[in-house]
Design a protein that fits this description.
The chain has a 5-stranded parallel β-sheet with strand order 1-4-7-12-15, with no helix packed on it. The protein contains 4 helices and 19 strands. The model has no long low-confidence stretch (mean pLDDT about 95). A hairpin with a 2-residue loop joins strand 18 and strand 19. By secondary structure, the chain is α/β, with parallel strands linked by helices. The N and C termini lie far apart (about 75 Å). The chain has one domain (about 45-185): Hexapeptide repeat proteins (UDP N-Acetylglucosamine Acyltransferase, domain 1).
Length: about 190
């Protein structure tokens, strides 16, 4: 029992340890009160945070101090953002329920060393302005989703070049359509 209390003491003494407890408690609070509380408290730990950010219940963060969030971003129910390699969510990004964004991976090149002892590699992720990621999308390390893209539910987004305003779908993700930006639509008439 003493060992457990010592671990709790050291967790609470450390800023990032305290954050784990804050997030564990705050993520369970429902309703508008919970949204406001999470958005107010957790955004203080982000690298940068714009205005009008909404953080729904169940969200988990790792490396929260490397998360940059623009204006009017919606972080959906039960999202898991592993931002240790750096994540940028530009203005007006909307993440559906169950979205996972990952910036870290195990190194595994040396077959003589167990994978868990080989360390990690980190690659940043950028989700462009006005993107919408549907339910249960998984974004892998190193991905850049450009402005205006929509990613359909249950897609796995890997590192490759995607055009702006694309509709992306599948595992692996591929372009299945295109959204026409309003300014292009008006100029065609």
């Amino acid at each position: 029992m003493i060992k457990i209390l010592k671990l709790l003491f050291w967790d609470l003494k450390d800023r990032w340890g305290r954050l784990g407890y804050y997030n564990g408690i705050l993520r369970t609070i429902p309703g508008r009160f919970g949204i406001e509380l999470r958005s107010t408290v957790l955004s203080n730990f982000f690298s940068t945070c714009g205005e009008g950010v909404i953080i729904y219940e169940g969200v988990r963060f790792r490396g929260i101090h490397k998360l940059q969030v623009g204006n009017n971003v919606r972080i959906g129910v039960d999202n898991f953002i592993q931002a240790s390699g750096g994540v940028i969510l530009e203005d007006d990004v909307m993440l559906g329920p169950g979205v996972k964004i990952w910036t870290i991976n195990h190194k595994f090149d040396d077959t003589n060393i167990p994978i868990y002892e080989q360390g990690y590699s980190y690659e940043s992720v950028v989700i462009g302005k006005g993107c919408w990621l549907g339910a249960n999308v998984f974004v892998l390390p190193g991905v850049h989703i450009p402005e205006g893209c929509v990613v359909t539910a249950c897609s796995l987004v890997s590192k490759k070049k995607y055009p702006p305003y694309s509709i992306l779908s599948g595992n692996p993700c591929r372009v299945i359509g295109r959204r026409t930006p309003v300014n292009e639509e008006n100029s065609a008439r």
